[in-house]
Amino acid sequence: MKFRRHNRQDQEYDDQRRRMIDEQLRRRDITDSRVLAAMRRVPRHLFVSEKRRQDAYRDGPMSIGYGQTISQPYIVASMTQSLSMTKRSRVLEIGTGCGYQAAVLAELARQVYSVEVVPELTDKARRILKQLGYRNITMDVRDGSLGWPEEAPFDGIIVTAAAPKMPEPLVTQLKVGGTMVIPLATDSYGRQFLTKVIRTVDGTTRQTLYEVRFVPMIGEVEE
Hints:
Elements: H1 8-25, H2 33-41, E1 62-65, E2 68-70, H3 73-83, E3 90-94, H4 100-106, E4 111-116, H5 119-131, E5 137-141, E6 154-159, H6 168-172, E7 174-184, E8 192-200, E9 203-212
Parallel strand pairs: 3-4, 3-6, 4-5, 6-7
Antiparallel strand pairs: 1-2, 7-8, 8-9
């Protein structure tokens, strides 16, 4: 994706994006140069409403309507880095939202499949991503907890909503050796923890990364 600078305001957003990289990502644990470059290229402000664009590069989530949010830049970068994608990766995203995470993934992977339960969000994300020239993102309106079995298996799966238990359909759609990053709300106090899951020949291995806060997953598996 090529993002051309046109005017002074574009320059201001470009400067804000550079500061986001330096102050929010590099100073933490985002070290993957490909992830940093992807975050640098994607114009985050275009994925939020015009009246909120000046806040687009701040260190926090933002509402995008329909009870959904765009995750803070650090979380997007961290989850992306945890997938360890290559240029040949096929990745499934659960929860398209505004399309920002899909755009970051598309900078790194060969093909991104993204599902969303809110049709209005899918339509809006599709328009933005088309305008930005992404051709390796396929979207659909469907139950994310069931994944996208027709396109499986995937090298990576990224889930942008918290599940109360591990969605087995998603696990089975991972390739052996593939990685899923998912927020799990399994704590007795209602806390959520980002979990990295790697599928093995005999099952899975799991690693708890850190505490997070995501909107709940909506779907058949979670009812």
